[in-house]
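Hi support team,

I submitted a single chain yesterday and got back a structure, but I'm not sure I'm reading the token output correctly. Could someone confirm the output below corresponds to the sequence I sent? I've pasted both exactly as they appear in my results page.

Thanks,
R.
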Amino acid sequence: MPRNNEAKPAEPGIVTANASVRRRFAFDDTRDLEEARRGFMGTARETVIRDGDGRVVWDLGAYGFLDQECPDTANPSLWRQSRLCCEHGLFEVTEGIYQVRGFDLSNMTIVEGERGVLVIDPLLCAETAAAGLALYRAHRGDRPVTGVLYTHSHADHFGGVRGVVGDDDIARGVPVLAPQGFLKHAVSENVYAGTAMNRRAAYMYGAALPKGERGQLGAGLGQTTSTGTVGLIPPTVDITRTGQTETVDGIRMVFQLTPGTEAPAELNIHFPDHSALCMAENATHNLHNLLTLRGAEVRDPREWARYLTEAIGLFAGSSGLAFASHHWPVWGRERVVTFLTEQRDLYAYLHDQTVRMLNQGLTAAEIAEEIRLPPALERAWHTHGYYGSVSHNTKAIYQRYLGWFDGNPAHLWEHPPVEAAHRYVEFMGGADEVVRRARRSFADGDFRWVVQVVDHVLFADPHHAEARALQADALEQLGYGSENGTWRNFFLMGALELRHGSVGTPTATTSPDVLAALSLDQLFDSLAIRVDGPRSWDADITVRFDLTDGEPVTLRLRNGVLIHVTGTGPVAADPDVEITLAGSDLREVLLGAADPAGLAGREGVKVVGDIGRLTELLGHLGAPDPDFAIVTP
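Hi R., thanks for writing in. Yes, this is the structure output for that exact sequence:
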């Protein structure tokens, strides 16, 4: 990992801006710290969690520097939030409900039943989940896992499942509960655009950044992502409606489905015997993302607010506490209602005011600059933009309604970045002149303008040493002033890669378990998006698979498009090769685990025609690039 010895001190403008934050907000309010520590039972003796090869995947002690006073190189509000998020250990939420916090980006909740425990959201990787379960057992006894529940379809809430249960446990009847549509969305999000999302997530969470006052402080929602083994065990019980009740090992649960909020498939859970409400990731101690910076489908803040209103009506009156899969709980019925109401008003306000302003003709960038939260909401720490931000959330709402185009015809057919950069730099007198003027803007503290204008120099000449150095310095200053943890990480990652080159992608969520969970339709779709279109314009290949354990499937590559049809029909006629095989054999071939040329020799496989045509078809697939450039072309 690169060292942070090139990080610079904060410039005077950033020092002044961060000092104003200290004066603006109630930093003497210690209730969040008291509640983040409430119920603490202990933490792991060994602070470093490793995988089977001895590689460190999580370090509980990495954020010890946050115990000191906030330095000038950090926004005090983000420093405060990161300090709260790095509290790690086992915490009693209420009798019978415990949380492991600070062992990953997310929390793992453990609910005690009659014979064992129900594990809710088993973190991102098996190693951290196993360490969390071991910590629970060290304090509460060696109770078996008698159920698993995924609250939603993001990897940090299911990826560590193999650290708490295995296939043998599922075969013995241990249930895995999840909201309807969970598997479809969990798999598709991590496979279709998974490579791009993972690369951008490296910037968003900053796992490769040095930890420290000039480096990574956290991500607002949690500290960062672990870098261990991501797995997936498919659900065995679907939650299909609000009001559905399930009992697992004597634990009674009432569910509220909340699709299209923080995740496409998500749910909240009420525990009537504990007067406790689990809000999954729908109400946490920050403004969440409506469009996460790593990339995703735009979320609907209107529906999000509506589901929070519904949760208040359904459960708040019978809930003495509310907890989530990130951050710390709130206790007391009035506190629960206030917390959920303010969270609801937060998303509703952003939605309504953004739509009001776009109907007045403001663009996304203009709305983001102009909109302000009501003072009553801004005073509540849990509405601050540590993870989502007012700025990028309002842009997401604009995108949801109007798309990428702002209506100005001058923006309809712009040159792509490299071509535009050459023209901009030429118009501005050449790269050296742009850098000279940008240095003056840097000295004036206009770091936003520096990164905007020097970006053109880098895309015209990515090897311009002075431009790289100046851009890194300006990005760094923007990071130092950011209240938003993911903005800080993006800025500092950009600076890091300009100084040291790419640091890669620390966590990959496209694991063997995720690939194995693909339906055949999803698997064929995932191949179609890998076809190198221009190289395949003249190809015309048809392959038919007669599955011994399913319907026949025909693949046709034509016009650079790979189409699959299940059953019989015009596209299924006259294949170049027809192969009879089991679905498991087909998966091996399509996932690259078996050579098509060797199929004919397998038991139960029959090949009619030229098997080389299948090899030729697969040869038209390209490999995604997990390490593509971001701050340079």
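A quick pointer for reading it: The mean pLDDT is 96. Let us know if anything else looks off.

Best,
Support desk
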